[in-house]
Amino acid sequence: LLQVILSPIVDKRLGGVGTKKTRLIEDWQSILDTFLAECNSTLSQPGLIEQLKEEKFDVAFTEPTLDFCGPGLFYLLGIDKWAVVNSLAIVDGDFFYTQTPSNPSYIPSCAAMFGGQMGEQMTFIERISNLITFIVSSRYFQPHLAKYTELMRRIDPEMPETE
């Protein structure tokens, strides 16, 4: 059994969020853009894709918390069997991406949990608020997936849509 762990290749020129006085949405966009740049840096490593293709992996796993590079990489490597795993609460945008069913009528959205707004049993108003939070945060992440498709298509123009 051969196991290989590929960690993203961080290019120090990418920087980070870089400011202490920014708004929440701007922070999230900077974080998402940094993950995209990190994916680009990893995929741009000379010979990496070819080297990994030669391994002929049977299965792959990825943790996509805000980073949607894994499944595209698996497609580029020709790995048909792969799974998404999360070590944290699933981020609202990941429900769409992983096609995992969600039910915001009784499961607090990730954004609501981080904000400490919801308890174990939500009131009707909390459920409505949770649904709105879930929809807004999910819709925020979905357009970002198109950027990954565009990135992957630079390597393989036949890459299917990720959105």
From TrEMBL:
Reaction catalysed by this enzyme: glucuronate acceptor + UDP-alpha-D-glucuronate = acceptor beta-D-glucuronoside + UDP + H(+)
Source taxon at top rank: Eukaryota
A Gene Ontology molecular function term of the record: glucuronosyltransferase activity
Enzyme Commission number(s) from the entry: 2.4.1.17
Keywords of this entry: Glycosyltransferase, Signal, Transferase
Family: Belongs to the UDP-glycosyltransferase family.
Name recorded for this polypeptide: glucuronosyltransferase
Organism: Pristionchus fissidentatus
